Amino acid sequence: MTEPQRTPTPIDAIAESWVDTLVDIDPLVGTYIGRDEVNDRFGDFSPAGHERFVSEARAVIAALDATEPVDDVDRVTRTDLRTELTLDLESADAGLHLRDLNVIASPAQGIREIFDIMPTATVHDWANISSRLKALPEAVAGYIETLRSGVSRGITPARRQVREVVQQTKRYSAPDGFFAQLAADAGPADGQLPASLASDLNHNAGQAAVAYHSLTDFLAHELLPVATEADAVGRDIYALQSRRFLGATIDLDETYEWGIDELRRMVNEQESIAREIAPGASVEEAIAFLDGDASRKLHGTDALQRWMQETSDRAVEELGRSHFDIPDEIRTIECMIAPTQEGGIYYTGPTDDFSRPGRMWWSVPEGVTEFDTWRELTTVYHEGVPGHHLQIGQAVYNRAKLNTWRRQLAGTSGHAEGWALYAERLMQQLGYLDDPADRLGMLDGQRMRAARVVIDIGVHLGKQHPDGRGVWTAEDAFEFLGANVNMNDGFVKFEVNRYLGWPGQAPSYKVGQRIWEQLRDESMRRKGSAFDIKEFHRNALDLGGVGLDTLRQSLLAE
């Protein structure tokens, strides 16, 4: 059923204008939401580019403050947009852009990663790719200028992050690296590239690789010697980042203690299920038993991709009949093997017109050829339906009520990832994880997310280690995570490096889940027998992405 079209308001106009401004300032945002007119360029990564962003953000805050909401939709838009922009200004004042380098989510990765989601079907698409490759050296130069400005002010990233990113940028710029492979594989779906475009593309890809080589050289020889030795960012920066990733203010000390208790609960639950899988077995023994079960293994990335797609399609079909109203536009999700080999699984949302559907990406590390379905089933639900794809796709679909900013750009990690973990538990409650092996796999992930809360807050705030050994160190973090996940050393290293360089983000998953569950339980308590879980989910998802404080205010308003 199509919702009646809501008449746009002055606050909608401010939000729409901000989207246009943001796309102009940062064309990578435009590509992400399907604004193909900016696919041929990058924004300005230099200090001047950041100053323009700050100036524009201040103007939007002033416009919002001068405009009164006309309804609840407006109130949410103004609250969340103003909160996000205010956090941007606080981050600018703290100089965070001057030290913006980490192993997973900084311009060092983002400038390269945008090519993963660019359209490639036509000659025009490849012309855009070629033009963007041509513009890449200037983008990298601007980024280096920003980091140099940080050096001059004594604001630098941690040494550990610099060392790790150097290894990434080396791979990108290698003779057989990403850019060389992109040029080698170039070609539209409907034919061949014109010779002149193929030549330009090869040249521009080569220049992009040279630019990344220059970034590697800068990082290794200029930034590394002056980088910060300490991994921890301290309470002030951590509190700022926590608010950004959650859209909520939490008691960090209480949350740390809760994380310790939650981890203990996850361990106890795993131990109980392990005994269901094999009588008397420990968790490690149950895992060894399952790892030896050939019926639960996939061989090769082709088999992995097919299994992901079949599992996702089945969830959409079945849940769409019984538990959720899933519009036709979001019944398509594409499961992809990512072109990189960094490790990790992630989701990218659909474009506003659904011409590019939502996609689940699996970045398979080099050499990994076997996959265990019992470990990964819950991940497919997390990234797909009822997880990110349902959540984000529903917001995009809800254009009758939500402006473009609300549909495409609003929201926080705590809202999105918290919902995805909430969705994992929901699938257990709906009977999709009745196999003890699949439940063990779900708990394996949930235990890791609980351990993240303890590690992230523990290290960055210098908390006392739970075993009484003293104050947390980065080295403790590697040991602690290794004891709480069933993953190889490479995974543990990448994960901990991610927490150390991206403070506040990793806990947002489990803390977000906690807040989602608190809101459901509080709503249930208030409404009693009138509570309808489907209505709760529908009302929550219809808001689109919001900060968790805004979500609380909206769902519990009487």
Write up what this structure looks like:
It is a single chain. The chain is mostly helical. It has two domains: 10-231, no CATH class; 243-508, no CATH class. Helices cover 64% and strands 4% of the residues. It has helices at residues 10-25, 27-33, 47-65, 72-93, 107-113, 123-153, 159-173, 178-184, 195-223, 235-246, 252-277, 283-291, 301-322, 373-383, 388-397, 404-409, 413-429, 436-461, 474-484, 489-501, 507-527, 533-542, 548-555, and strands spanning 297-299, 333-337, 345-348, 358-362, 370-372. The two termini are 26 Å apart. The mean pLDDT is 94.
Brief account:
The chain is globular. It is built from 23 helices and 5 strands. Helix content is 64%, strand content 4%.
Question: Topology, pairings included?
Answer:
Elements: H1 10-25, H2 27-33, H3 47-65, H4 72-93, H5 107-113, H6 123-153, H7 159-173, H8 178-184, H9 195-223, H10 235-246, H11 252-277, H12 283-291, E1 297-299, H13 301-322, E2 333-337, E3 345-348, E4 358-362, E5 370-372, H14 373-383, H15 388-397, H16 404-409, H17 413-429, H18 436-461, H19 474-484, H20 489-501, H21 507-527, H22 533-542, H23 548-555
Parallel strand pairs: 2-4
Antiparallel strand pairs: 1-5, 3-4
Helix pairs in contact: 1-2, 1-3, 3-4, 4-10, 6-9, 7-9, 8-9, 11-12, 11-18, 14-17, 14-18, 17-21, 18-19, 18-21, 19-20
